[in-house]
Every structure is written in structure tokens, then in C-alpha cells.
Design goal:
It comes from Streptomyces sparsogenes DSM 40356. This is Phage shock protein B. Keywords: Coiled coil, Membrane, Transmembrane, Transmembrane helix. By secondary structure, this protein is mostly helical. Helix content is about 95%, strand content about 0%. The chain has one helix spanning about 5-89.
Length: about 90
């Protein structure tokens, strides 16, 4: 083989490598971009879920505080009623 044939072989190999590498890199980058977008959407959904859970927990804590106050009030009334009943007996 002479030099010209070798340059054609090297050129063909280089062109083949370019034809294989370029689409591979483009597809790889497209997939990475898509995965990043999906991850951002997923993180936003988790953030919304966490915010709603925090709001629900805060509402539950407020209701529990109200119930505890009512229960303490009822306990005080019950003790007062028991004292009155013991006095009457």
C-alpha cells in the first residue's frame, strides 16, 4: 500500500469515528438534559408536598393545642364538680 491508500484508510476511519461519535454525544446530551428537567420537576413536586405536609402539621398542632386547652378546662370543671358533690354528701 502506498501513502495515498493509507491516508484514505485513515480518513475513512476518522470519518467513521466522527459519524459514530457525533450522534452519540448529541443523544447523550439530550438524555442528560431531559433527566435534569425531570429531576427539577420532581424536586418541585417534593417541595410542594413538603410544604403542604408542613401546613397540615401546623394545623394539626393548633387543633391539638385547642383540644388540650378544652380538656384542661373540662378537667378543672370536673374537679370543681367533684368537690361540690363531696361537700353535699
Amino acid at each position: 500500500m502506498d501513502v495515498r491508500e493509507w491516508t484514505e484508510v485513515v480518513g475513512a476511519f476518522g470519518l467513521f469515528a466522527l459519524v459514530i461519535t457525533l450522534p452519540t454525544v448529541i443523544i447523550w446530551q439530550f438524555a442528560a438534559t431531559r433527566r435534569a428537567r425531570i429531576q427539577v420537576v420532581r424536586e418541585q413536586e417534593y417541595r410542594k408536598l413538603a410544604e403542604s405536609a408542613a401546613a397540615a402539621q401546623q394545623g394539626t398542632e393548633e387543633r391539638l393545642k385547642e383540644i388540650s386547652e378544652r380538656l384542661a378546662e373540662m378537667q378543672g370543671r370536673m374537679e370543681s364538680l367533684e368537690r361540690i358533690l363531696q361537700t353535699v354528701e
